[in-house]
């Protein structure tokens, strides 16, 4: 039974981030972490106090806010009572990888927490992180190998959170699972998109150790269906495996075909961030795209842009400006964005705390170059919304100096060339792979999970889709399944 008055006794509190002038000098987590030997940052009693703020309100809107259906009030109370063994049991019951979401989720659950009616929700995401971190510290995260093997072989293509969740569920259900990844390491965007300072790769690696011990096989450096020598062909894939899960992500970045786009120094965000991650891991001293000593402009005001911002500052950029075509969000919920929907309000990410300037309601008209063909500035102008469309505010044109430009304007969908074309699966109108209510594509036995079907989304949705698709695959292979299905392919966030 929760402490129904805890929220009256304790204020909402979160662990402090490391000082900006210190953390900007390295790539480590912006928070102190036990992995780095930095304990007692936010001591366990403080976490327990925060967990005590959950009143177990009876109708847990937070469940509905969380695509995984995490049993939030239950593990909040277990954390409050210092019962980390039971807490991780309850958390793992719905989430294969609470450490990814505990670090990286935008926490829609907190938007729908009843205490958010007063704008001080329970620190659900932080408590989630603490439960799994305590579990690893206490050696409570052990391999869960299957008790019986079905003899069925499943190939999972792509090792991001969707592929990993599907693979872990299917391995535990007794299938023989191989995950194929074209990159040299496993993890998808967790490995080469999301920077080290948001989630250290050691956090990913300790989970992969568990998966290997359970029997999941990983094959890296293989792009399935590419048609290149040494890569697995679609014919091999179909003949060697009883079922296939496509979890290749929505990897095609949205471009900006403005005049001057061909100038040197303009890159898609995902051309840049993997080098930053390799630099952070000490694999590259001088990344091919380096913000050191440069004036950087990032087009796109979202999370990917913020990741470019934090990376550029750590590389020693002279200045960083982030442009956003939308107006600045309000500080508090607007009337048309009521609780318990996700609050569309101004947020200051760790990267924004570290510097840089954010410009809102601006559009890029053209890129301007120097005589050597390098970008030297952007011609931008203000915009306003008229009848739902952006219109230029005449007379506001100005130049914004830039030596390096990153396009972080989202992703348009799955890569078609190679695997998708070779398999002959159909796409939907949004550029994702079309699937039915059972996560199956238009080719029987080929299932789809994560951004590749849903389109650009979030880690929590990718894990939920991976879990649900695994349930569908298991049913298709064996006729029935005990695996949970937290979401349907068409489920959407509370809105
Ligand atoms: C820079 C950035 C930062 C982000 N930050 C956050 C965040 O903080 N919080 C959050 O919730 N979400 C964040 N997201 C979104 C989140 O990372 C994605 O929604 C999530 O990773 C999608 O998971 P996925 O498994 O579907 O695909 P991905 O993570 O994209 O993984 C797909 C994998 O499939 C591989 N692949 C593709 N085709 C093939 C093939 N033919 N053969 C073999 N391998 C193949 C790719 O190489 C890739 O590794 C971020 C996204 C980006 C780009
Ligand atoms: S996964 Fe995200 S939405 Fe779900 S409980 Fe954790 S932080 Fe909240």
Protein model, in words:
By secondary structure, the chain is of the alpha/beta class. It has 3 domains: 132 residues, Fumarate Reductase Iron-sulfur Protein, Chain B, domain 2; 166 residues, 3-Layer(bba) Sandwich (FAD/NAD(P)-binding domain); 155 residues, FAD/NAD(P)-binding domain. It has 19 helices and 16 strands. The strands form 4 sheets. A 5-stranded parallel β-sheet has the order 3-2-1-4-16, with helices on both faces. A 5-stranded parallel β-sheet has the order 6-14-7-8-9. Strands 10, 11, 12 and 13 form a 4-stranded antiparallel β-sheet that branches. Helix 3 crosses helix 5 and helix 3 packs across helix 9. The longest helix is centred in the last third of the chain and has 20 residues. The mean pLDDT is 96. The structure holds flavin-adenine dinucleotide and iron/sulfur cluster.
SSE layout:
Blueprint: H1 6-9, H2 20-23, H3 44-51, H4 61-65, H5 72-80, H6 84-92, H7 98-104, H8 108-112, H9 124-137, E1 153-157, H10 161-172, E2 176-181, H11 189-192, H12 201-214, E3 217-220, H13 234-240, E4 243-246, E5 252-253, E6 266-268, H14 269-280, E7 295-299, H15 303-315, E8 319-324, H16 350-353, E9 357-360, E10 362-369, E11 375-386, E12 389-392, E13 398-401, E14 404-407, E15 411-413, H17 419-423, E16 446-448, H18 451-454, H19 459-478
Parallel strand pairs: 1-2, 1-4, 2-3, 4-16, 6-14, 7-8, 7-14, 8-9
Antiparallel strand pairs: 5-15, 10-11, 11-12, 11-13
Helix pairs in contact: 3-5, 3-9, 5-6, 5-9, 6-9, 7-9, 10-19, 14-15
This protein binds flavin-adenine dinucleotide (FAD) and iron/sulfur cluster (SF4).
The site of flavin-adenine dinucleotide has 39 residues, from helix 10, strand 2, helix 14, helix 15 and helix 18.
């Amino acid at each position: 039974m929760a402490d129904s008055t805890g929220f009256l006794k304790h204020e909402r509190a979160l662990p402090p981030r490391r000082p900006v002038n210190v953390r900007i000098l390295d790539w480590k987590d912006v928070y102190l972490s036990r992995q780095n030997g930095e304990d007692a940052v936010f001591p366990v009693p403080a976490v327990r106090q925060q967990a005590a703020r959950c009143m177990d309100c009876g109708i847990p809107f937070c469940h509905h806010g969380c695509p995984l259906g995490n049993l939030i009030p239950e593990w909040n109370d277990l954390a409050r009572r210092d019962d980390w063994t039971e807490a991780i049991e309850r958390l793992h019951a719905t989430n294969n990888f609470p450490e990814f979401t505990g670090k990286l989720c935008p926490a829609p659950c907190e938007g729908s927490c009843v205490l958010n009616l007063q704008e001080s929700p329970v620190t659900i995401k932080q408590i989630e992180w603490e439960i799994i971190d305590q579990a690893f510290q206490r050696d409570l995260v052990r391999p869960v190998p299957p008790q019986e093997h079905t003899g069925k072989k499943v190939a999972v293509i792509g090792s991001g959170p969707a592929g990993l969740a599907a693979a872990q569920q299917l391995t535990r259900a007794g299938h023989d699972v191989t995950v194929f990844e074209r990159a040299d390491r496993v993890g998808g965007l967790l490995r080469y998109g999301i920077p080290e300072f948001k989630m250290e790769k050691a956090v990913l690696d300790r989970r992969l150790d568990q998966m290997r011990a359970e029997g999941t096989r990983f094959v890296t450096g293989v792009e399935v269906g590419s048609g290149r020598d040494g890569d697995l062909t679609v014919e091999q894939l179909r003949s060697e495996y009883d079922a296939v899960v496509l979890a290749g992500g929505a990897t095609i970045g949205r471009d900006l075909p403005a005049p001057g786009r061909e100038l040197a120094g303009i890159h898609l965000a995902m051309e840049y961030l993997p080098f930053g991650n390799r630099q952070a891991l000490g694999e590259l001293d001088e990344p091919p795209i380096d913000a050191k000593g440069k004036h950087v402009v990032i087009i796109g005001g979202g999370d990917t842009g913020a990741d470019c911002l934090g990376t550029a500052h750590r590389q020693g950029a002279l200045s960083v400006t982030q442009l956003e075509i939308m107006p600045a969000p309000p500080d508090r919920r607007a009337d048309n964005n009521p609780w318990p929907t996700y609050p569309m309000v101004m947020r200051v990410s760790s990267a924004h705390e570290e510097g840089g300037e954010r410009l809102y309601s601006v559009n890029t008209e053209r890129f301007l170059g120097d005589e050597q063909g390098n970008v030297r500035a952007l011609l931008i102008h203000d915009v306003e919304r008229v009848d739902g469309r952006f219109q230029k505010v005449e007379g506001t044109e100005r130049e914004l100096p830039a030596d390096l430009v990153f396009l972080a304007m989202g992703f348009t969908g799955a890569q078609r060339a190679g695997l998708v074309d070779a398999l002959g699966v159909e796409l939907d109108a949004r550029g994702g792979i079309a699937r039915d209510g059972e996560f199956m594509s238009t080719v029987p036995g080929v299932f789809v999970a994560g951004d590749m079907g849903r389109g650009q989304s979030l880690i929590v949705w990718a894990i939920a889709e991976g879990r649900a698709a695994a349930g569908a695959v298991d049913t298709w292979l064996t006729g029935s399944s005990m695996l949970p299905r937290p979401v349907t392919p068409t489920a959407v966030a509370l809105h």
